[in-house]
Amino acid sequence: MCLAVPGKVMEIEERDGTRMATVDFGGVVKEVCLEYVPDLVVGDYAIVHVGFALQRLDEESARRTLELFEELGLLQEEFGDPWEAAAAQEAMQVQEARK
Q1: Which of 34, 38, 78, 87 has the maximal Cβ count within 10 Å?
Q2: Side-chain half-sphere of 47: how many Cα atoms within 13 Å?
Q3: C-alpha 43: how far from chain center
């Protein structure tokens, strides 16, 4: 199952011409591409799918959703190895498209 998961932007940097962020998903920290939502800033919450921030989200909605996902055990399922592999593949495709 694929989910779009809310996370909090902790750090932002540009890497090889691509805006990337360190995002906290309720204790699970991952690298996320910000190319689809370039105006996100540190402290914002975003909906993330396979390593790409897709939309800004308010903090209350993000927290409620993360709590529900944790109760249902969905965060462990979403952030297994397939998620990381898909995120890496998508990030490479974005970088190649920008060349």
Answers
A1: 34
A2: 11
A3: 13
How many whole angstroms separate alpha carbon 53 and alpha carbon 35? 8
pLDDT in tens, 46-95: 999 989 999 999 989 888 887 887 777 766 545 554 445 455 556 666 66
Count of domains observed in the chain: 1
**CATH number assigned to the domain comprising residue 94:** 2.30.30.140
Range of the domain at 50: 5-98
Contact between 56 and 40 under an 8 Å Cβ cutoff? The reply is yes
CA distance 72 to 44: 24
In degrees, rounded to 5, the angle at the alpha carbon of residue 52 between the alpha carbons of residues 50 and 53 is 130
What is d(CA 96, CA 35) in angstroms, rounded to the nearest whole number? 13
